[in-house]
């Protein structure tokens, strides 16, 4: 894709929504200007400030897609500068998927100017994971010591992890020609799927604590962003699998099955509700909406989904995301850090919400290319 897609409409054109990549660049610049001062985030925590943590990592993952879509060179340079500041290290917890997410940006950077040295810390960490895999249940049981001591966090026992970790492992196999990372990722992806996927609803539970949970109307609780993480993760894994591989065929079938269900759950205003089966009185929510818009747009462009069937859903989702940009330039209506549906307000934003918006924008822009 060429940089020309960032050009503005002619001066005499009727007012219209900005092209996807122009909107993405504006939001990326807003977030870059607010990297260190996190006072704009309502529930900023120590984790929000971690430059190698998942919250910021998702922003940088979105930045890699933006840079690859013809953005000005400063976007690529911002990624390289971030990696250098981090000394290309994943997060501190070797087996924790959230601490592996930033490696997706490092692997991209290694082939876009940073060189092989950018891979060394990730290779060391992932090498430990694949040669000495964690042996633990996938059941999510929080001990008295607190959430962080949950034993299964050493594996991918919560659905968010399927975005955070396996795309990085699969991408590292591509870069290094070492199939062990991909093999490990696929084995664990399917273990998590077999455990958390509800075959009746075609959706993932966030973790095993939600198997028997019901809302006040007796409905199962499926978290929008949680399922968005999964679909976004598959959009990043599938292109890196051999076209004739059983894993790719199985994952494409799973993706299509989820897509068909998710499309029915979009609200008339274009947003997906925080709790997917509870659309009534739901606020706009942009993190889940952005991931669905990204994944479905990717699916169309990749030929996995029918354009005629899914493009209207994508266009409604993208229009909803544009409406969520606030007067000061931030992306609003982003549900804060959590593990289940929760309240959200117009001013709520987060690094990961911006990252998801960038992914959606670049995927929608590909749909706009002349065929």
Note down, in words, how this protein is organized:
The structure is a single chain. This protein is mainly alpha-helical and 371 residues long. The protein has a single domain (17-367), classed as Glycosyltransferase. Helices cover 49% and strands 1% of the residues. It contains 13 helices and two strands; from the N terminus they run ααααααααββααααα. The protein has helices at 20-32, 54-68, 73-85, 103-114, 120-131, 161-164, 166-176, 180-196, 224-237, 246-264, 286-301, 307-323, 351-367; strands spanning 197-198, 203-204. It has a two-stranded antiparallel sheet. Helix 4 (103-114) packs parallel to helix 7 and helix 12 crosses helix 13 (351-367).
Write the layout of secondary structure elements.
Blueprint: H1 20-32, H2 54-68, H3 73-85, H4 103-114, H5 120-131, H6 161-164, H7 166-176, H8 180-196, E1 197-198, E2 203-204, H9 224-237, H10 246-264, H11 286-301, H12 307-323, H13 351-367
Antiparallel strand pairs: 1-2
Helix pairs in contact: 1-13, 2-3, 2-4, 2-13, 3-4, 4-7, 7-8, 7-9, 9-11, 11-12, 11-13, 12-13
Helical region count?
13
Find the structural class using helix and strand composition: mainly alpha
Radius of gyration: 19 Å
Main sheet specs = 2 strands, antiparallel
Strand content: under 5%
Count of discrete structural domains? 1
Which residues form runs of ≥5 with pLDDT under 50? 1-14
Total strands: 2
Estimated helix fraction: 40-55%
The best one-word shape is: globular
Keywords: Hydrolase
Protein name: Glycoside hydrolase family 88 protein
Pfam families: Glyco_hydro_88
InterPro entries: 6-hairpin_glycosidase_sf (IPR008928), 6hp_glycosidase-like_sf (IPR012341), Glyco_hydro_88 (IPR010905), PolySaccharide_Degr_Enz (IPR052043)
